[in-house]
Amino acid sequence: MKVFLSAAWLVGAILWSLAKPIAPILAIAPAQAAVNCDPNYTGTCIPKFSEAGDLDCKDIKAKNFKSVGSDPHRLDGDNDGIACEKKK
After folding, report:
1. Of 22, 33, 39, 85, whose CB count within 10 A is highest?
2. What domain range includes position 6?
3. All residues at 6 or more sequence positions from 63 whose CB lies less than 8 Å from its CB, including other chains
C-alpha cells in the first residue's frame, strides 16, 4: 500500500510540474503580440517591417485603418492617413 501511494504521489507530482509552465506562456502571449505590432498603424495590428518584411494591402484582412507615422509598409498610397482603403 505504501509503494502504491508513493507511486501515485510521484505521478501526480510529475503531471503537476508539467502543467505549471502553460499558465505563464498563455499570460505572455497577448503582450508579445502587442509588442510585435508596428506603432505606425492604429486600428489593427500590422507586424513590424523588421519582422514581417514588406506587406501589401492584399496581405492584410483589415481595411481603412490609420497610418500614423512613417508608413514603412507603404500601405497609405495617397498619404491621407488611411491605410488599405477599401475601393469604392
Report:
1. 85
2. 1-35
3. 57, 84, 85, 86
Residues 6+ apart with CB under 8 A from 30: none
25 and 40 assigned to the same domain: no
Specify whether 4 is located in the same domain as 19: yes
| pLDDT value of position 88 | 65
- Separation of CA 63 from chain center: 18
Least confident of 19-23, 54-58, 61-65: 19-23
pTM exceeds 0.85 for this model: no
Q: Which amino acid is at 48?
A: K
| C-alpha closest to that of 72 among 46, 36, 33 | 46
Enter the DSSP assignment of 17: H
Structural domain count of the chain: 2
